[in-house]
Amino acid sequence: MALASLLIILLAISSSSAALTEPLASTANPEVFPEYLGRGRGRREEEREENPYVFHSDSFRTRASSEAGEIRALPNFGEVSELLEGIRKFRVTCIEMKPNTVMLPHYIDATWILYVTRGRGYIAYVHQNELVKRKLEEGDVFGVPSGHTFYLVNNDDHNTLRIASLVRPVSTVRGEYQPFYVAGGRNPQTVYSAFSDDVLEAAFNTNVQQLERIFGGHKSGVIIHANEEQIREMMRKRGFSAGSMSAPEHPKPFNLRNQKPDFENENGRFTIAGPKNYPFLDALDVSVGLADLNPGSMTAPSLNSKSTSIGIVTNGEGRIEMACPHLGQHGWSSPRERGDQDITYQRVWAKLRTGSVYIVPAGHPITEIASTNSRLQILWFDLNTRGNERQFLAGKNNVLNTLEREIRQLSFNVPRGEEIEEVLQAQKDQVILRGPQRRSRDEARSSS
């Protein structure tokens, strides 16, 4: 993403077949998510058949749903496009739980990194035969290892709990993962349903009639309502003890919103959670970040040398522009089909609203631009971060300023070398800049 690996998981955008000709502040239906490639200056561009880097609400698949909440997931990235084959082993999911609800105990054959986008609650999981509970609030990052039984509780009386998450399956190479329910009945089925009666009778040392009453009664779905008394009792019980909270083998959530920003100026800020904050992320070679752009601001065009970013808009509106060498005038084209001198960089352009998800492959320069009417907050997951470097193509710290003056003059073939220096030194900000509309407005004010 364009912020500290600008890792850029969630839901609510519909596709549109109209070409992008209107500014963000247009009167277009707010539920529409139009996005096309190579948006031209002042002219209507040819509609592109597909944008493999941006996802619509109808791309999410419902994995579980009930009156109390739902779980949805994007499809396997490798099946969406060959251009996303490198992140096939990762999945993006989202969870929504209404007030006073519980997600049934289960485990998944995947490592799970969650980020709380709205609300509060707690997660409980079993580690070495100990029940560990962790309170969750907006901005928290937390991870659950694969194969560990856990459950989620929204203990708030009024607000919905919303979670965006990154999942890395461990059982298959195709990026597929499955839940294994240890509690439930008919909906959802439990893992016990796969075993024969005599085996279960021996395992539990009881008769099959009792087992059928226990494991065959629940029909209300994966997420269910609980009354206030049940919630209070769960909160009072073991798992939240001081000893458990301080045990080093049981990590606590890391809150991105409460930390000192890694970068901040008058245009916005960003905060990163990496191995130094959360060792769990180191094992996955993943970092998590949060960008907060003020209205009318933009991230300086930048690239990740090694990481691919998955960006999720958690709040606000804006747009992205990204340079891509793999998309020809009519869709994807292989580098084998053209020589280096024939490469053209297509502009991938998409409107952003709360819930938008987009992918930024390594090496692809990108900028995120906030609407002049609202802040733009982006959660990002950076994948393959070990050894990654972020390089800026504009701003005070851009890579061109690092090169020798002679190289710059030779490369741009500008007769007056001083003009190159004037252009490169004109921007006094770095990382987060004034966006196009805000810059034009400020210049108009200064000249009047």
Automatic annotation (TrEMBL):
It holds the Pfam family Cupin_1. Residues 1-18 form the signal peptide. Residues 53-212, 254-420 form the Cupin type-1 domain. Keywords: Signal. Residues 242-262 are annotated as: Disordered. The keyword Signal applies. This is Vicilin-like storage protein. It comes from Picea glauca (White spruce).
